Amino acid sequence: MLEHIQILLRGLCGVREMLFLHHLSLLLVFVTVLLSIRFWLRAQAHPLPPGPWGIPILGYLPFLPKDIHVHMMKLAQKFGSIYRLRFGNKLFVILTDSKAIRDAFRREEFHARPSNALYDIFEGYGLLNISGVIWKDQRKFLHERLRALGMKATGPGREQLQDRIMVEVECLLQCLATGEGKPMDIGDLLCNASTNVICSILMSVRFQPNLPNFPNYLRLKALHDEGFKLFLKCDIASYVPVVKYMPSVVENFQRLMANHDESLEMIHEIIKQRRKIFDPDHIRDILDSYLLEEYRAKEEDRVLFEGKDFDKQLVQVMTDMFSAGEETVKTCLLWSLLYLLHYPHIAKKVQEELDAIVGRSRMPCLDDQQHLPYTEATICEVLRKSAAVPLGTSHATTRDTTLGGYAIPQGTTVIPLLYSCLMNPQYWTDPEKFDPLRFIDAEGRVHKPEQFIPFGVGRRMCLGNVLAKSEVFLFLTSILHVFNISNPENEPLPSMEGNLGTTLTPSPFKICFVPREVSKISRIDMRSQEFRTAGL
Ligand code: HEM
């Protein structure tokens, strides 16, 4: 064959050209060999992380059980704390301990969110699902504005945040009191309470069955609940190219889009109403802060969000904060009550600490937090054992990189398996046991081990962690300060098994709230509801 080519070339070219071609082909062979050796050496130095085999087209998807988070934690025993999985045609890297997660997420190339047809719904707007410079700017802006509204761990100004939360705490306590100690399922009440806190911070709106906007709340909640389910279904389908064209998947996708559009439109309506009464000298919430930016940009003849639609950004940010802040806190409160039903002696110890430090003549406040180590340890233990966001939120790599000696190619989806950090027997003694004392050191102070990362770590860690901790503290301590909680008589204790969706939630359960000498606590200060409804 080679001879034939040479004869042909001899016929076409002179001797000098032949020599040149000969040298050129030698050079090409040499370069190819060199590149192959380099590639092989690099692959030896930085191979892909190890991981289980999957099957063609679907990858590891068919082997995923219902409790994905537990299964993924078990895979780490075989493959180590950094391993790979293939879902359909997509490469995933799973990080199962806080060291690997910290190592990765402190680096810029791990800060992006994955990008596929599903995430494209957000068109690069909002905060939760965007990447790059816009994400950085928006995160900084929101962080500063939230701090200005009192969302900080220490220092003056926290009363603003506390006031907003306490309005909802007081409403909740009144509802619980109407139950007169009979069994109640309080999932909807907690959902309404946490929605109202976040909506108050975002746009000074609250919803209550006796307020005219309550049907809007029910619709928004239904859209979100369905949206989360559809998102999960479409998410899995989006990894397998063939599956995503199936009629049922296309239909789910279209419903998700319609759902998303309707919920954005509802928020947009609130924004349009607010614009009419906006006052740059009276900034009440996050919505006002954005409108102030818009107002200043107009005054200074400056363009906001070059090439982007300001209203779309505003609506998507509101929606992102709403989704991130409502479900998580409600879930965490439900778990708190469920664990305390199972471990009544812990509930009693928290009440004793509250009685000793806060006293029986007032309600707990944020300043008490630092003086209540057992209560704080109990909340840490709730955050650990419930692992409310077991799979964290996926990140993606923006360039080829390495981690722990492994190659992580550009565009890899990275899952920080928070469930493993919080529940792995390698890091926690008897992790299934609910035991606040694991967070108390020899001096009686609260100590948080390095695997305790319920809010993630790094530059993309939960933006609302201070708010979440404040809410859980104020709701839980207030409930325990005013009521004794118990399981309905002659009923088995509710299951502690979690159901995996975007969060890990307990199944619905009933609980009795029996007042504890309420008369001794000064009457709960019900602030006027008019101030809240005025923002509508
Ligand atoms: C107990 C309650 C909560 C838990 C366990 C929780 C947990 C998390 C986790 C694990 C992440 C992902 C971090 C990452 O990407 O690495 C996250 C992100 C986020 N959380 Fe929370 N969260 C809670 C409550 C809240 C609340 C109340 C808000 C409201 C402001 C909030 C706002 C956010 C936002 C905006 C992000 C995305 C940050 C970004 O992409 O830069 N979260 N949260």
From TrEMBL:
Pfam families: p450. Signal peptide: none annotated. GO terms for molecular function: heme binding; iron ion binding; oxidoreductase activity, acting on paired donors, with incorporation or reduction of molecular oxygen, reduced flavin or flavoprotein as one donor, and incorporation of one atom of oxygen; steroid hydroxylase activity. Keywords: Heme, Iron, Membrane, Metal-binding, Monooxygenase, Oxidoreductase, Transmembrane, Transmembrane helix. Its cofactor is heme. One of its GO terms (cellular component) is cytoplasm. Heme binds at residue 462. InterPro entries: Cyt_P450 (IPR001128), Cyt_P450_CS (IPR017972), Cyt_P450_E_grp-I (IPR002401), Cyt_P450_sf (IPR036396), Cytochrome_P450_fam2 (IPR050182). GO terms for biological process: organic acid metabolic process; xenobiotic metabolic process. PROSITE patterns: CYTOCHROME_P450. The chain crosses the membrane at residues 20-41. Belongs to the cytochrome P450 family. This is Cytochrome P450 18a1. It comes from Halocaridina rubra (Hawaiian red shrimp).
